[in-house]
Amino acid sequence: MNIFSLLERAIISDDILIKEGLTTQCLGYCIENEIRCDDDFTPLLFSKPSYASKCHIVDPRELPARKDFESKEGLATLVHAIAHIEYSAIDLALDAVYRYPQMSSEYKVDWLEVASDEIRHFKMLQSILTELGYKYGDFPVHCGLFDAAEHTAENILDRMAIIPRYYEASGLDVSPQIIKKLDNKRKNPQVKKLIDALRIIYDEEIDHVLKGDKWFKYLCKEEGNQEGTEEQVYFEILERYHLLSKHRPHVNVEARKEAGFSCSEIKKLGAKECS
Predict the structure, then answer these.
(1) pLDDT averages per 10-residue partition of the chain, 275 residues
(2) Using an 8 Å Cβ cutoff, are 19 and 90 in contact?
(3) Cβ–Cβ under 8 Å, residues 252 and 202
(4) pTM of the model
């Protein structure tokens, strides 16, 4: 089986059921087999995200503010925004396998498991959107995660630092704040379902960030960085991508520690205390 051909189809497809079927197929095969890649294989550089056929893509500054969760439309905009992150994360996890064929079977299985989780997360949120009378693509989106994947395509160490260890880890800071804002509206059945979904997503995203942490540290060593310099390498990468100046009103110390961050890193990211 040529899993790279299947992964390419999965990444390009805008159909969640096709993505799911191909991801399940690739994961099952990778668990049972050692994967070989043709020497002449060159991964495609995708010119647009797979959701471009469904969604109107705008500059992040053009996205409407999400403050009104009382109306169905207001709640749907929030669900849609989170669903879009999960959908984007599916393609990023698949691309992490597709783009770096030299990596081990353990690496491939890790990111295919992440893709499988992200598909399940998206489908949970898609179901809530349907109950609210909307579908994925009904609201504008930005392509920030696609752009980040494009910028890190040539460097797997940068990819592990930027996608799981920066963007996904930022989600660990934000999710508890969203749940907190929604909690007094949980009598609304769709809000309760959203809170339940967010709690599942939050718990599983810790594992995703931990996988990113594991492979980031492995790659630091593989690229000849001295043991103990991973933190320095990480912040040098963030600085290179102009991400250090981003303001974080909330840093989730416990979740980040669980996901592999050191207290020194967590404090540099803006936490006042960590022990």
Answers:
(1) 94 98 96 84 94 94 76 93 97 97 95 98 98 96 95 97 96 94 91 96 97 97 90 96 85 96 94 90
(2) yes
(3) no
(4) 0.94
